[in-house]
Amino acid sequence: MPKRIAAFGEVMMRLQVPGYDLLSQGNTLNYSFSGTGVNVVSALARYGHQGKLITRLPENALGDAAAAYLRKLWIDTSLVQRHGKYMGLYFLENGFGVRPSRVTYTNRLESSFNTAPQDAYDYEALAAELDALHFCGIALAMNDGVRQHMKALARAVKQRGGTVIFDCNYRPSLWGDNGYVQAKPHYEEMLKLSDIVMMNEQDALYTLGMSTAQERREDQLEELLPQVSERYQISVIAGTHRSIHSSNEHSLRGFLLREGQFTYSDMLTFSVYDRIGAGDAYASGIIHGELEGFAAEKTVRFAAAAAMLAHTVSGDTPMASEPEVLRAMTASAGDVER
Q1: Could you tell me the mean pLDDT of each successive run of 10 residues in the chain, 338 residues long?
Q2: Which of 71, 97, 147, 153 is the one with CA 20 to 30 A from 312?
């Protein structure tokens, strides 16, 4: 049966310079709407689940446009509130070769989502409608009000026997100076409430302040993540390792830790059209596999293929259906499908 899954998170307007121009070169911008939660629940809706978003949009034409865009992405907007005037924006300059993509945020802390009052959400009523709820470390970085809503919602879902999903997604620019110290207690609270977590050894080393004598990333991963799983009683931990090549190709390998055992995908190498949102595609693949009861190998291979496909389409949000991801797990690039 399809699962009722929601994400708690901000909707942002993405303003992108066409092609590979810099902001200082371009004179036009293409806009769309996105966010980690948007990307994850849209992908899960395409996989057959009931994907909802818990958020607040401004009560004006900008909010109307965002709500219409969410519906176009197959997202159930019945839990979306309309209050306030502002929406966070980010400007994207596409990278090429050795030049990385660059994201510049503006107006974010004044958005309808990030200024929600203490009584904005009925936690128990929301939890009663859901089988699973997704949270992101980006929202955790915003302010104390957002953090309070996240933790209260997670507790309500947990108490009702639902699945709590947390993507660490630490962003140094959002936490500011001494960010790891500020972030650690909030991350620890969310990890204690979580069943499925997206993270890698970098999160364990820096956000949680753990240590290891190992030097290879895979060795660090296999030493640290089982300790995280045991310390916080987390059922599933997953993530990726990525290599970036000068030829505008990336290589990606997914991993999954379940019941003390690591499972890895093949190393996938592919050309990149648009990188933004590919991590959310991987997360949605892991969540889908866990909700559907896939074997560990199928789950991690499905997630890695979903991430690979997300690199091939424009925009933040994954667009592949389950049959398309399954086909990508076994097929190489071919001719036009007719």
Answers
A1: 94 93 94 96 97 98 98 97 95 85 89 96 97 97 97 98 97 89 97 98 96 96 98 97 83 95 94 85 97 97 96 89 93 53
A2: 71
